[in-house]
């Protein structure tokens, strides 16, 4: 991928320090700037450290999640994942120490200890995750010591999650904090032995709209069982069995690659990168998993499943492609694995991708992204609303796929929007998810409402 990081006249209105985070495919030479802390004052779409940790850990269904900070932090991340549970609903409850000015002045450790005592005695959870926030981190509360004392007192796992937002302006740091907490939870205690199995762990899967259950059904059909997902529809007991798996498959690489590497070093579990968004990606991922098991029966069942499901997807794509061909699309999502899938799906429908970006992409991922796109496509890392708005207008976008923050920008500009956020309730994974996505793209892009909307770039669709 060749890129340019020099500002064009059209980019003059943008923040100067951001110019190296916005590139155009096919021009020249410099690679995109990414994985840096968000620029202060630019109000980027990237979330804070605490949010990064919370979105990874919150789907552990039977754990208590206690936010040590002001009530606003707990409110911000309450029920932010559309994760579904087949059992406990404890994770739906939001607990906070509700720090006030007095706690900031005199310290919040006693208040945290009192909250842990109340939670342990009232709910008897198998584990409590305690999240530090900007305020508790800045005043120096020692949540590690408080959690250690509570673990000994109540004989449960009380796990500190060191996710103070001021540490960094980067959500990825929060992923790491969550990963460290998970490893602390699943590492066998002295003398404990975890039995090895032929099951696999599914890392970076959060069961949004029941998506873990879709993949679980595919794998069961071909003869493979999921041990536990990190962390969709998981329980503390199931997570503690994770070291017994023979394979880790990793979907959300941004949140779980580090964990997969640590599990390989600690437990000898190899891992494969997979992507179950989009029909072609799903087929490729199933074949990779089947190849790992090296079993002719598993391989045969895999090919039979793929042949059956792909035909249904092709029928739907053919039905809608004529209406969608040539439409201009924008993509802005959290992780690169999701962006790759959406690019592939929209390209298969004959659509032109004119703008794409992510919150947490790496340079190698942006290079691969550029190889999938036509010359002239704008790629943005850690965008802010002004940049997204500018390019939606400049590129005359018909439809945008993104998250909750981008929805309102698109609608205000008269641009169709497809929700691909982590709080959605509709599953978009696997073959059936690909069909659902195609139908949503068609219904949104080709809605008659756009005939009556005057776009900011001065045209009315006919």
UniProtKB/TrEMBL annotation:
Pathway info: Cofactor biosynthesis; Fe-Mo cofactor biosynthesis
Domain Nitrogenase/oxidoreductase component: 48-444
Entry-linked Pfam families: Oxidored_nitro
Keywords in alphabetical order: Nitrogen fixation
InterPro entries for the chain: Nase/OxRdtase_comp1, Nase_comp1_CS, NifE, NifE-like
Entry GO MF terms: nitrogenase activity
Transmembrane segments: none
GO biological process entries: protein-containing complex assembly
KW Chaperone (keyword) present: no
Stored NCBIfam families: nifE (TIGR01283)
Family to which the UniProt record says this protein belongs: Belongs to the NifD/NifK/NifE/NifN family.
PANTHER family: NITROGENASE IRON-MOLYBDENUM COFACTOR BIOSYNTHESIS PROTEIN NIFE
Function text: This protein may play a role in the biosynthesis of the prosthetic group of nitrogenase (FeMo cofactor).
Protein name stated in the entry: Nitrogenase iron-molybdenum cofactor biosynthesis protein NifE
Organism name: Methanogenium organophilum
């Amino acid at each position: 991928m060749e890129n340019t990081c020099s500002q064009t006249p059209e980019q003059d209105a943008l923040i100067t320090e951001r110019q190296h985070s916005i590139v155009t495919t096919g021009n020249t030479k410099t690679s995109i700037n990414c994985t840096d802390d968000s620029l202060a004052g630019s109000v980027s779409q990237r979330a804070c450290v605490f949010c990064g940790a919370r979105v990874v850990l919150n789907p552990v269904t039977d754990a208590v999640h206690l936010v040590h900070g002001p009530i606003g932090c707990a409110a911000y991340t309450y029920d932010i994942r559309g994760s579904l549970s087949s059992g406990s609903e404890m994770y739906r409850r939001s607990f906070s120490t509700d720090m006030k000015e007095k706690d900031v002045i005199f310290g919040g450790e006693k208040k945290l200890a009192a909250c842990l005592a109340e939670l342990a005695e009232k709910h008897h959870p198998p584990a409590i995750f305690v999240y530090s926030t900007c305020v508790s981190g800045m005043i120096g509360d020692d949540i590690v010591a408080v959690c250690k004392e509570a673990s000994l007192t109540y004989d449960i796992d009380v796990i500190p999650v060191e996710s103070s937002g001021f540490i960094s302006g980067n959500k990825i740091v929060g992923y790491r904090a969550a990963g460290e907490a998970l490893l602390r939870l699943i590492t066998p205690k002295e003398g404990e032995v975890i039995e090895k199995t032929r099951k696999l762990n599914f890392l970076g899967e959060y069961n949004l709209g029941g998506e873990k259950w879709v993949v679980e059904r595919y794998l069961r059909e071909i003869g493979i069982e999921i041990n536990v997902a990190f962390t969709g529809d998981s329980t503390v007991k199931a997570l503690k069995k994770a070291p017994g798996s023979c394979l880790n498959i990793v979907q959300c690489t941004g949140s779980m690659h580090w964990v997969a590497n640590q599990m390989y070093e600690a437990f000898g579990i190899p891992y494969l990168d997979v992507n179950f968004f989009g029909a072609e990606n799903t087929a490729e991922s199933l074949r990779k998993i089947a190849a790992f098991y090296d079993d002719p029966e598993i391989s045969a069942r895999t090919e039979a499943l793929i042949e059956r499901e792909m035909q249904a997807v092709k029928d739907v794509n053919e039905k809608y492609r004529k209406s969608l061909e040539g439409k201009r699309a924008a993509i802005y999502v959290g992780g690169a694995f999701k962006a790759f899938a959406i690019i592939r799906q929209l390209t298969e429908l004959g659509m032109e991708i004119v703008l794409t970006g992510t919150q947490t992409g790496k340079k190698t991922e942006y290079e691969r992204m550029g190889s999938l796109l036509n010359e002239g496509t704008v790629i943005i890392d850690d965008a802010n609303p002004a940049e997204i708005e500018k390019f939606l207008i400049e590129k005359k976008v018909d439809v945008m796929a993104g998250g909750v923050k981008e929805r309102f920008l698109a609608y205000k500009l008269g641009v169709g929007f497809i929700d691909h956020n982590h709080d959605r309730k509709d599953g978009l994974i696997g073959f059936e998810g690909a069909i659902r996505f195609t139908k949503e793209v068609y219904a949104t892009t080709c809605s008659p409402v756009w005939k009556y909307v005057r776009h900011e770039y001065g045209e009315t669709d006919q």
